[in-house]
Write a structure and sequence with these properties.
The complex is a heterodimer of chains A (about 325) and B (about 260). By secondary structure, chain A is mainly alpha-helical. Chain A is built from 14 helices and two strands. The chains are: A mainly alpha (about 325), B mainly alpha (about 260). At the A-B interface, helix 4, helix 5, helix 8, helix 13 and helix 14 of A face helix 1, helix 2, helix 3, helix 6 and helix 7 of B. Chain A: One of its GO terms (cellular component) is cytosol.
Chain lengths: ~325, ~260
């Protein structure tokens, strides 16, 4: 695999991380230079990025499940094709991201195994169920909207492969978000039943979507070093506020009510939301969300049911190489 | 009441377009069931891609059927408001996904036919059908390549994959004859140069199938009994379940815009 061609051995030896190299590295970051796979990097930088990129990849893949739940039931052929294409895009994002993680020396197989073993995380939002068609609109509008808010700054992330992957991912996500909003608009201009369906979906997704930005700044574990390394450019709370400010007028345009009676607009125009239920967030992260078990079971089943197919492809490739070698020897 | 099945006046041309549209939709729907559950991410992508091609073909063919019918029907009414007895697809395409081998063999049998069929249809005197055929042929050629390469890997892979691939061939073989059947309505269109006769394509189809199956170290069944009925709306029990899922929103909330 091409990851083996990269200089990972040297950086895995932490003894070589001398102060001079670290200072030089930080100077490059401060000068807004991009770090590339073969460049020297601190082991902790590599570890942080591998964790973040692989979690991002896992989220794309697990994220196929809640929306995939409606592909076979999409209400029109146009919606069916658009949803299928969207979920396929997410799979593509997962693939780019695993490839980006591979440039750090971690193989897709080991990353996927860690996820299936429950050792690696994915975004908590995908542990909520999609109960009606309006959930598909809401996910596009809010979940993809929140993802874009998180990912636009990542297009300037200090690690080159991740930043470049994010540019393409963001373009597609922004298309998905418009598609989701258009589903909501159609529902909100539709019958009373459809409007109620849209409001109900917003009610269920709003708070979990706000949790997507991660714990409040005061308690966030990773932010300081990530900020210094320019992996992260805005804090969780800053991004969350940006998202809320962008979303409230969109909800108003739809004629929907944000399920936060305590929300007020402050003098500067920011929409101040009420306290988020972080106990729920912790429960979902701990595996107790409504769908954690279902999501993991679905991914494990796909992996286990597909094992014989992957083995067949590998066995065939080995046989072919053997035949070619035998032919060349003749 | 809006939930009731629509009526379709099945002139030979309408019926012709509906049959092909139903083939494409039902097979596309089946493939879309894999999305998120395939053996590897690359296959989640590939099977979704093929499904998207087929759903795209279905939409064009339904729209053409609706236009040929000249009434109030449109692509969505035709897809969502006909019941199992009104569907005209081949029995082959409604067969459940089963394991990956069954899905691939189903795709292989169908794509090997569709590739030849759409290529022949490019000379149809009906310019819309000729245009749909030109696009579908390009797509089918890729679908056939994908399915053939997989069948070879599965057949010549491990003992398990070989056994699964052979079981899939044995199971699905009886559904292949229907692809080449022609009824009276279709015969008129064939005489008029609008449709092509699939019968004479069977020789070349069998050649493709035989070549790939033999490279895959697999064998074709000796049993030549062929199931029929899909074209006339006599389906397997599987289709009703598929349609109840596909049509659930339109049946639950009749007459709305989505």
């Amino acid at each position: 695999m091409y990851t083996q061609a990269l200089n990972t051995a040297e950086t895995d030896d932490r003894g070589l991380e001398d102060a001079a190299k670290a200072a030089q590295f930080q100077a490059r970051i401060d000068a807004e230079e991009r770090i590339e796979p073969n460049d020297w990097m601190p082991a902790a930088y590599r570890k942080t990025l591998t964790r973040q990129i692989s979690q991002h990849a896992h989220s794309e893949i697990v994220g196929m499940l809640p929306e995939g739940n409606w592909i076979t039931r999409a209400p029109t052929l146009r919606r069916k094709a658009a949803l299928l294409a969207k979920v396929q895009d997410e799979c593509g994002h997962g693939l780019y991201l695993y490839a980006a993680a591979e440039t750090l020396g971690a193989s897709r197989e080991e990353l996927v195994d860690a996820m299936l073993a429950g050792k690696a995380k994915y975004s908590s939002i995908f542990n909520y169920p999609t109960l009606t068609w309006a959930d598909i609109g809401t996910i596009g509008w809010l979940v993809d909207g929140a993802a874009i808010m998180n990912q636009i700054p990542l297009c300037r992330c200090s690690y080159g492969p991740y930043a470049r992957a994010m540019i393409r991912v963001c373009k597609e996500e922004s298309f998905h978000q418009r598609q989701g909003y258009e589903i909501m608009l159609t529902l909100c201009r539709g019958s009373d039943e459809q409007k109620a369906m849209a409001q109900d979906a917003l009610n269920r997704w709003w708070w979990p979507v706000l949790m997507m930005f991660g714990p409040p700044d005061a308690t966030s574990q990773h932010s300081d070093t990530s900020t210094r390394w320019k992996i992260k450019r805005f804090s969780n709370d800053e991004l969350r506020q940006k998202f809320v400010d962008a979303t409230v007028p969109q909800a108003q345009y739809l004629g929907l009510t944000i399920p936060d009676p305590g929300m007020i607009q402050d003098a500067e125009g920011h929409w101040r939301y009420s306290e988020i239920d972080w106990a729920e967030f912790k429960q979902v992260l701990a595996g107790n969300g409504p769908c954690n078990r279902d999501r993991m079971a679905a991914r494990r089943k796909a992996h286990e049911d597909g094992a014989w197919v992957r083995e067949a492809a590998a066995a065939y490739a080995a046989k072919r190489t053997q035949r070619q070698t035998a032919q060349a020897a003749e | 009441m809006a939930t009731a099945n629509i009526e379709v006046s099945e002139t030979p041309l309408v019926l012709y377009a509906l049959r092909r549209a139903d083939d494409a939709l039902i097979l596309g729907h089946r493939l879309s069931e894999w999305c998120g559950h395939a053996p590897m991410l690359e296959e989640d992508m590939a099977l979704s891609n093929i499904a998207l091609d087929l759903i795209g073909q279905a939409r064009e063919l339904y729209s053409y059927a609706a236009k040929a019918e000249g009434g109030d029907n449109d692509e969505d009414k035709l897809a969502y408001l006909r019941d199992v007895r009104q569907y005209r697809n081949l029995l082959l395409v409604e067969q459940p996904n089963g394991d990956f081998a069954q899905t691939l063999v189903r795709q292989f049998f169908y794509s090997a036919f569709a590739d030849l069929y759409w290529r022949a249809m490019m000379t149809s005197r009906d310019t819309t059908l000729a245009a749909i055929a030109a696009k579908s042929e390009k797509e089918s050629a890729y679908h056939l390549r994908h399915a053939s390469e997989w069948l070879i890997r599965l057949g010549d892979g491990t003992d398990e994959s070989h056994a699964r691939a052979q079981a899939a061939i044995d199971h699905l073989w009886a559904f292949t004859g229907e692809m080449f059947a022609v009824d009276d309505g279709a015969r008129g269109l064939i005489h008029a140069g609008i449709a092509v006769d699939p019968g004479p394509l069977r020789g070349r189809w069998l050649q493709t199938i035989t070549d790939v199956v033999s490279e895959a170290t697999l064998v074709l069944p000796q049993n030549d009994w062929m199931q029929q009925g899909g074209r006339a709306g006599r389906h397997s029990e599987h289709l009703g379940h598929l349609l109840s899922e596909l049509q659930s929103i339109q049946r639950t909330f009749p007459g709305l815009t989505w």
